[in-house]
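User: Structure please.
Assistant: Input sequence and predicted structure:
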Amino acid sequence: MKRSIYLLALAFGVSSAYAQETILPARPQDKPVYLTNAVIHVGNGQVIENGTVAFAKGKITAVGAGVTAAGDATVLDMKGQHVYPGIIAPDTKLGLVEFESVRATIDAREVGEINPSIRSIISYNTDSKVINTLRSNGILLAQVTPEGGIVSGTSSVVQLDAWNWEDAAYKTDNALHFFIPRLVNTGGRGFRGPQPRDPVKEGLEKVETVRVFFREAKAYLQENKHAATNIKFEAMRRLFNREQKLFIHCELVKEMLIAIDFAKEFNMDVVIVGGADSWQITDLLKQNNIAVVLTQPHSLPLMADDDIDQPYKTAAQLQKAGVLFCLSNEGFWQQRNLGFEAGTASAFGLSREEALSAVTLNAAKILGIDKIAGSLETGKDANIAVSTGDMLDMKSSVITRAFIQGREINLDNKQHQLYEKYQQKYGIK
């Protein structure tokens, strides 16, 4: 008996030693809050010096330089700090993957090639320890995206302060995801591993399989009665009704031309995800009203003859051409650097406020949530980040407060706790 108690105590001690931080979701906002004396970056290009943002019951009630507090409100003096809309991270595996090397923690992929009925939201893990590292850099919303196969399923937008996936859901099933195979022959080894003898031919055959599937689904949905219910075809209904967008993942011009053809043939709202070569066809993208989610801005050029700084300046070229775009970062933990990548884009042609819009309001427009998020405007959700410096600058950005739907959230995380722990160990603090 004593031995059993000893082993239990030992196990508890070991588990405690390796325990991660426990951060509870914040309680709903109970009274109005005023953030005063701040430099307000609205997110739509406007900057208000020495301004105030007021919000109550989770919604922004006033923004401007002449706003004064009234009634039983909490007034927080920002003393010249910068107030921003929370950053939005599109196209991420956040909450679907915890450790990339441990299969049991990966819920981003499903078996099969065409799975439009798969919903990423129900696999989203609100207890992921990665989430807290993003929030401390001002990322407050994310689009949780499935992978695997060619048509991988639907993504959903989540807010990053929740008990479970139902609480986290911000906009469910906002987009269906189609991954076009890489249509380039790289001599037997490609961007995604070993390639077949003729990768272009095989890739085009897969694209044609998807095209046929879309045609069959459209015909099925036009029928008044069905002999049998087809779950995959039924999952396409919102896409054909334009209640849902089609996010097509591709990089090369020839792949993006296929995406444009899909938009024309099926009259769908198409968004290109990746878009490394989008700078070459900005006129076509503009003509067909196709938005772009630029992924991995901090990377080498896709092709050997591209300018070495092409990934940095593509955003400015899309902006100049009038193409709606936003920035993203592949993976999940890497998303914490999204604001800093926007800062890099501002050094290569974007203005500072255009770069901010690329990770806030533009992202909200592309994800279909711009009526309630993406900028600090009256009536929108109070998703707010406060920084002592420029939130897009790694050297000066220190997020001091953050609010999601008016709730002030805890900005602690395991990495910060380790930082403080070893400061004490070595007498630095």
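The domain at 87-373 is CATH 3.20.20.140 (TIM Barrel).
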